[in-house]
Design brief:
elongated; mainly alpha
């Protein structure tokens, strides 16, 4: 478990409202799942897009079952799989196209390996991965947070962050992504931890 003591102290010093949220929520329990390759993490993110967790997990399980003996298929195996088989596992036509595009980019070297990606900056990773069909900045930001454990990611388009911020500050309307970019400057270099607390703010009683 990562020690976020320094990050939490910085956030508490820089913002009294966020300090109140932190006191109610308690210790930061953000965990990373870095056992997966970037290809696997992104393929899973594509599968989960616009679905509830249970439905997405069922579909992902069916997809993985197409490749017995493997924890997760390799890019070349995905490309060799007929679209109809992937559609039969529950993936939409658009998601099949996106995952195959991801696999093609992985084979072409545009999706870094687990070792290579750790040498890249956040901006480089976003730039490199958003060329893949179906992958936008938000998807890459989730990879940076939950796979790579980067501590200064600020997902300003994330609905949960915007909603949690509005609740914490008792705002009538959700802040725009542009507004959040400015407002988040004071939390550098720990904006990931701030985002985590705004997600948790949604679980607090009013």
């Amino acid at each position: 478990m990562t020690d976020f003591t320094e990050a939490v102290e910085h956030l508490c010093r820089s913002d009294k409202v966020l300090r109140g949220v932190i006191r109610k929520v308690g210790k930061c329990l953000l965990e990373t799942k870095n056992h997966r390759s970037p290809f696997e993490a992104l393929a899973q993110s594509i599968t989960y897009q616009q679905l509830n967790g249970t439905a997405a997990a069922t579909i992902l399980g069916r997809v993985k079952a197409l490749y017995p003996g493997r924890r997760f298929p390799r890019p070349q195996e995905v490309l060799a799989t007929p679209d109809e088989r992937l559609r039969g596992a529950g993936l939409s036509r658009a998601k099949v196209a996106a995952i195959k595009d991801l696999a093609a980019h992985a084979l072409g070297g545009m999706v870094p390996s687990s070792r290579a990606i750790r040498k890249l900056s956040d901006a480089q990773i976003v730039e490199q991965l958003t060329v893949v069909r179906g992958i936008g900045p938000w998807t890459v930001e989730m990879l940076l947070i939950f796979h790579l454990g980067r501590t200064d990611v600020w997902p300003v388009t994330d609905y949960g962050v915007r909603k949690g911020f509005a609740r914490a500050y008792r705002l009538k309307d959700l802040p725009s992504p542009k507004e959040l970019i400015e407002l988040g400057e004071k939390w550098r270099p720990y904006r990931t931890v701030a985002a985590w607390y705004f997600w948790r703010a949604l679980e607090l009683d009013e």
